[in-house]
Amino acid sequence: RGRAAPRVRCVAEPIQKEAVRTRVKRNVNLGKLQAGYLFPEIARRRNAHLAQNPDARIISLGIGDTTEPIPKVIAEAMEAAARGLSTLEGYSGYGAEQGQGALRGALASTFYKGLGVKDSEIFVSDGAKCDISRLQLMFGPALSVAVQDPSYPAYVDSSVMLGQTGEYDTGVQQYRNIVYMPCTPQNNFFPDLSATPRTDVIFFCSPNNPTGNTASRAQLEELVAFARKNGSIIVYDSAYAIYVEDDSPKSIYEIPGAREVAIETGSFSKYAGFTGVRLGWTVVPDELQYEDGFPVIRDFNRVMCTCFNGASNIAQAGGLACLSPEGLAAMQELVAFYKENTRMLRATFTELGFSTYGGVNAPYVWVQFPGRSSWDVFEEILTKADIVTTPGSGFGPGGEGFVRASAFGHRKNIVEAIDRLKKLYGK
Ligand code: MLT
Fold first, then answer.
1. With a cut of 50, which residues of the chain have pLDDT below it?
2. Ligand 1 site, residue 43, Cβ cutoff 6 A
3. In the prediction, which pLDDT does 16 show?
4. What are the residues whose beta carbons fall under 8 Å from the beta carbon of 134, sequence distance 6 or more?
């Protein structure tokens, strides 16, 4: 007593020095992947630039991530659904794995009116990218795949992960056993199908990410005829369909004969600012069959029931509000805002003397830097103008020499980016 109590110190057990390894073999397919997924790699380089230049005010024209608030009428519907969950009457647990009936019906009547798509053929999900992986899981490792080159990296990377491909060939910068269909200014961004070998699956994105180009009706008729002749399945990614302002098709089902050969994915991400909310859908027509006559929709349903528990009920309430008359008008307003950004960026690059593509029916402008490496141009724009873009070669070897500028951004940032680009590349 009277003396300070002895101090008790907690001493951690010494950390074991020897590294312990499991005896689990790494999935060889994951070992085939080159570097990281494109967008985290871009974020890494952006952060490295920021670490060296802490005062840099970086503007992103990189990843296609929406920036403007979700329209009130849609956010309020999600708010009401969330509040409802705290009441006995409004609470709901697991929903149908395929999505709420009302939302499936609204998707069919809004985006597929007159095209013969049934509510029961629409699977609501947490996004088109996730559905692409689940489709790959359904297809399995033993089939062949074709992609547009350049293309959205999730198609190729998920093929590699599933084991559909061989090793990466650094010489041509392509994975073996994938058919890359070149889409360049020379062929008007539509592949020469007469020179394309048959594959089981053809991934096709229109309006296209990254080139911003849209396939015409005649081109899609050619694609559907090609798939029918070869007995292939088209996975048609229509995530940017709402941006189409001319008479290009918004859905592959506008093309007669597509129901027997095409699956379509769609997304609310770029329509309503749902990149973080997560809501999309996939259409699998009843008529689509494997070679033995088994309906593909039954397998996709099986995959969804096993690997997915249905989209968030709050997000689905938002999706339903998107498709109300007020929601549709609000989405159109949002899309018009991004389209004006796109027009401004496209006009700037054109004025600066670059050959510029896309940027009319899509929120992406595809800019050519002849004879230069895409990653070098990316670094130049990042280090000299503090602007993040996306290097074209990140979308496949066909993107080399191009850079993609995304039009998702606050207007003041787009205006500022234009100013900096003019300083960097103006005469
Ligand atoms: C992109 O920048 O290409 C998009 O963010 C892709 C996506 O929607 O996942």
1. 1
2. no
3. 63
4. 125, 300, 303, 304, 307, 308
Instruction: Report the nearest atom of ligand 1 relative to the CA of 209.
Output: 3
Task: Please count the residues of the chain.
Answer: 427
Q: What is the pLDDT of residue 12?
A: 63
Q: Whose CA is nearest to atom 3 of ligand 1?
A: 64
Q: Determine the pLDDT at residue 8.
A: 62
Q: What DSSP string runs through 12-51?
A: PPPPP-SPP--SPPP-HHHHH--SS-HHHHHHHHHHHHHH
**Residue 111 CA to ligand 1 centre (angstroms):** 21
Cα dihedral 153→156→158→161 (10° resolution):
-130
| pLDDT value for 130 | 97
Q: Specify the pLDDT at position 1.
A: 47
Ligand 1 near 64 CB (within 6 A): yes
- Rg of the chain in Å (alpha carbons): 24
Confidence at residue 18, expressed as pLDDT on a 0 to 100 scale: 81
Alpha-carbon gap, residue 237 to 112, rounded angstroms:
15
3-state secondary structure at position 132:
helix
* Mean pLDDT estimate for the chain: 95
Nearest to 390 by CA among 365, 370, 411, 358: 365
Q: Is the CB of 352 under 6 A from ligand 1?
A: no
**Euclidean distance between CA atoms 115 and 230, whole angstroms:** 24
Distance CA 179, CA 396 (A): 12
Give the model confidence (pLDDT) of 97-145 as tens digits. Answer: 999 999 999 999 999 999 999 999 999 999 999 999 999 999 999 999 9
Find the distance separating the first CA and the last CA of the chain, reported in whole Å: 85
Residue pair 214/364 in contact (Cβ under 8 Å)? The answer is no
Compute the distance between CA of residue 333 and CA of residue 356 in angstroms, rounded to an integer.
25
Q: Which pTM does this prediction carry?
A: 0.94
